[in-house]
Amino acid sequence: MADGLRKGLTSYGDAGFSLFLRKAFIKAMGYSDDALNRPIVGITNTYSDYNPCHGNVPQIIEAVKRGVMLSGAMPFVFPTISIAESFAHPTSMYLRNLMAMDTEEMIRAQPMDAVIVIGGCDKTLPAQLMAAISADLPTVVIPVGPMVVGHHKGEVLGACTDCRRLWGKYRAGEIDDSEIEAVNGRLAPSVGTCMVMGTASTMACITEALGLSLPMSATIPAPHAERFRSAEASGRVAAEMAKTKGPKPSEILTPASFRNAQVVMQAIGGSTNGLIHLTAIANRSPHKIDLEAFDKLGREVPVLVDLKPSGEHYMEHFHHAGGVPKLMAQLGDLIDLDARTITGQTLREVVANAEDVPGQDAIRSKANPIKSEGAMAILHGNLAPRGAVIKQSAASPKLLQHTGRAWCSSRSRT
Ligand code: FES
């Protein structure tokens, strides 16, 4: 099969002419024949002035390109849609599948032997995983990483667990105009994704558990130097994948890896949206997410990561405590350690290299969980005949049983 620049030639009815023309045009960018004869690693650029969560993407791309070239391959950066939660009208969910289609089709349409997708804000990693599975080209995922925490009057702030809480205090008259203005400048103190266990953090952890990103890549804070060294290492891995033509997502993703992702989602106190996205991701593969099996897992898997909103800490604390590899080590036989990763290692090797951090309290042991049962449960009833998901680990006990009138609105969106 053709590779590099010879892949997927434009249809001019003459393959030789198609390649001649392609090379003639790309040479306008100043590339040499040596550069153009290398295996190609495509790199998605999801930077946007509307997306502060992806504010470090240009620096990540530079590091990735360095890694690709140090390993003898050729990086090609191309743009895709970028979606930021607070800039999508009326809601970002409408755009996830559009981003999946955009990413998938541009991976298919352009010549590349491997691809690196860079994302993080809530809908972006799900869209990119869906695209990668459908395109089934060797893929490395790089999460952009979480923001560092904010501080206000001696309190640690987390976007966005504290956004609504403090806005509620303002509306109740408990804090005044000048204080809410100060809070507004402190809730998101750096680029990167929300640093609580929201959808972005959940999807980054799931991606790492699936074996589609480098160990520790879910949790490294977005502005840290380590984030860019990890990006360089991701570039090196992608270059090797471009040379060897594998492994592809279809060779990494198995029932065991999807089960591992669900175990990790329960143990981190993951977002309910994470289950919605993981279902859509699995639907791009031969494997499916079974709600009853997920509910059963929730009764067996304790919440071990002490992060807001289920617990107290933030993503940077999870990272400094050992990140997803340490969590999987603590989960022991709940994780299938024979599952493969993009580096060629199994999770057994990843877990064996997990850092032991004396005195850390962000990743608990199974003997001392923050909740003895998992984060999420599946509910059934006449309000949700096909099932609904609740994040019970973040709910106060009074929310778990409620009697009241159900109001159904027939008003449609205008
Ligand atoms: Fe982008 Fe929270 S708004 S991750």
Topology:
Layout: H1 15-26, H2 33-36, E1 40-45, H3 57-70, E2 74-79, H4 93-109, E3 114-119, H5 124-135, E4 139-143, E5 150-152, E6 155-157, H6 161-171, H7 177-184, H8 199-210, H9 225-244, H10 249-252, H11 255-267, H12 272-283, H13 291-300, H14 315-320, H15 323-331, H16 347-352, E7 376-381, E8 384-391
Parallel strand pairs: 1-2, 1-3, 3-4
Antiparallel strand pairs: 5-6, 7-8
Helix pairs in contact: 3-9, 4-5, 5-12, 8-11, 8-12, 11-12
Bound molecules: FE2/S2 (inorganic) cluster (FES).
Give an overview in words.
The structure is a single chain. This protein has 414 residues and is of the alpha/beta class. The protein folds into two domains: 38-148 and 190-394, Rossmann fold (3-Layer(aba) Sandwich), CATH 3.40.50.2300; 149-189, no CATH class. The chain contains 16 helices and eight strands. It has helices at residues 15-26, 33-36, 57-70, 93-109, 124-135, 161-171, 177-184, 199-210, 225-244, 249-252, 255-267, 272-283, 291-300, 315-320, 323-331, 347-352, and strands spanning 40-45, 74-79, 114-119, 139-143, 150-152, 155-157, 376-381, 384-391. Strands 2-1-3-4 form a four-stranded parallel sheet, with helices on both faces. It has a two-stranded antiparallel sheet with strand order 5-6. A two-stranded antiparallel sheet has the order 7-8. A hairpin with a 2-residue loop joins β7 and β8. α11 runs antiparallel to α12. The chain is globular. The mean pLDDT is 95. FE2/S2 (inorganic) cluster (FES) binds next to loops.
| Distinct helical segment count | 16
Determine the oligomeric state from the structure. Answer: single chain
Q: How much beta, percentage-wise? A: 5-15%
- Average predicted confidence as pLDDT: 95
Instruction: Kindly state the percentage of residues in helix.
Output: 40-55%
CA radius of gyration is 22 Å
Q: Structural class of the secondary structure composition?
A: alpha/beta
Second CATH tier, the architecture of the largest domain: 3-Layer(aba) Sandwich
CATH superfamily of the largest domain: Response regulator
What shape does the CA trace take?
globular
CATH first level of the largest domain: Alpha Beta
Order of helices and strands: HHEHEHEHEEEHHHHHHHHHHHEE
- Neighbour order of strands in the largest sheet: 2-1-3-4
